[in-house]
What does this fold into?
Amino acid sequence: MFNDLKSAVRPALVLTLLFAALLGIAYPLALTGIGQTLFPSQANGSLIRDGDTVIGSELIGQKFAGPTYFRGRPSAAGADGYDAAASAGSNLGPAAQALTDRVKADVATLSETTPGSNVPPDLVTTSASGLDPHISPEAAFSQVNRVAAARGLPAAQVRALVTAAVEHPALGFFGEPRVNVLLLNRALDRARPQS
It folds into this structure.
């Protein structure tokens, strides 16, 4: 009977160890190697560097303060927002008073900086992750006059930077046109560094 049990358990243990080695070690190592070889930037987080210093990622939104920069979507990730370790939405429903109050305050603030124009929804609503690095072209164009005035640049030059920063849908129809705020602000700094 012991030999029968031993002969029944042995193949199960061998297969378990084999698949653990294949799927837990070999497969992840192979995919990591392929990723590092074919797509090294993406495999390492699409990091943006200024010399040797990492200043951000194309995939994670950041907070930009002051009138001289384009602003991204608000973030509910973490205590101060934009915390990649605490990626999440606010979980506030449309009837939540806290959400209504925050959106009204954001609309009022943005209306002061761009009088006479509608505030695009993505400048006052958070994304599901709270880390979306993109805004709509409409949201970027709505900030052109404020940024141009704060930087002392012609509005046409800033508008051209936004136009150049618009990322179009993949294959022409996957996704929506969008603008990566960090990349746009870097282009803006190259056009006229902040003093």
Summary: Residues 46-191 form one domain.
